[in-house]
Amino acid sequence: QLTLVESGGGLVQPGESLRLSCEASSWTADYAPVAWFRQAPGKEREGVSCISRIYGTTVSADSVKDRFTISRDNAKKMVYLQMNNLSPEDTGVYYCAYGRLDATCRNSPPKVSEYNRWGRGTQVTVSE
């Protein structure tokens, strides 16, 4: 059974950077993408960035596309989220997720309904 484990969260000041990591216990043989989501207190979970494991194409939400970069290392079964110039609005729990068989990563940021395997999350707090 596929499991996902996130790491790399923490407390940083505005303007600083963090790199989140997501380790998968296995890689499936399908084309399902992998994505990062986040959930701020009292808000719904939102898609941040996704990446195609096969082609390496990525899509990010407008709020982060100039600051966050998603990448993957297929050999290590790892997906990363490099987050630069963080602001308090980026605070939340960040989740790594694996897409359903029919999920794609093109044209729009990831949607919660398209992902069905989730890690437990890692907390990111941006504060003075």
Structure commentary:
This protein has no helices and 11 strands. With 128 residues, it is mainly β. Strands 2, 4, 5, 6, 9, 10 and 11 form a 7-stranded mixed beta sheet that branches. Strands 1-3-8-7 form a 4-stranded antiparallel beta sheet, with no helix packed on it. 36% of the residues are buried.
Radius of gyration in whole Å, from Cα?
Answer: 13 Å
Shape category = globular
How many DSSP helices? 0
First-to-last CA distance: 40 Å
Helix percentage range = under 10%
Helix-strand sequence: EEEEEEEEEEE
Alpha-beta content class = mainly beta
Strand content: over 45%
Total E-strand runs: 11
Low-confidence stretches: none
Task: Give me a quick take on this structure.
By secondary structure, the protein is an all-beta fold. The chain has strands at residues 4-7, 10-12, 18-24, 34-39, 46-51, 58-60, 68-73, 78-83, 92-99, 115-118, 122-126. Strands 2, 4, 5, 6, 9, 10 and 11 form a 7-stranded mixed β-sheet that branches. Strands 1-3-8-7 form a 4-stranded antiparallel β-sheet, with no helix packed on it.
Keywords:
128 residues, mainly beta, 7-stranded mixed beta sheet, 4-stranded antiparallel beta sheet
